[in-house]
Write a structure and sequence with these properties.
2 helices
Length: 81
């Protein structure tokens, strides 16, 4: 699977969040270039896990809705004499 592509603005926002997290939680300061590099790494290495989880959640919801639809179609069936 290819790494997700983000707009410049999205990447900058993500890098800003990484910088803020590292500063606030780990007392580490990094520059924007390093933060964007880390965002790229996380997207490439961890992105598939989040993507697959999203697909699994979508599949579960779809199965639930299909079961509801199947029930509604069964309700439309008429008795055969």
């Amino acid at each position: 699977m290819k790494a997700p592509e983000f707009s410049r603005e999205q990447k900058e926002r993500m890098a800003s969040k990484v910088k803020g997290y590292l500063r606030d939680e780990l007392q580490q300061e990094i520059g924007s270039f390093d933060a964007e590099f880390l965002v790229d790494f996380l997207a490439e290495e961890l992105g598939p896990y989040f993507y697959n989880r999203g697909l699994a959640d979508a599949r579960s919801l779809l199965n639930e809705k299909m079961a509801e639809l199947d029930y509604q179609v069964q309700e439309l069936e008429q008795a055969e004499e």
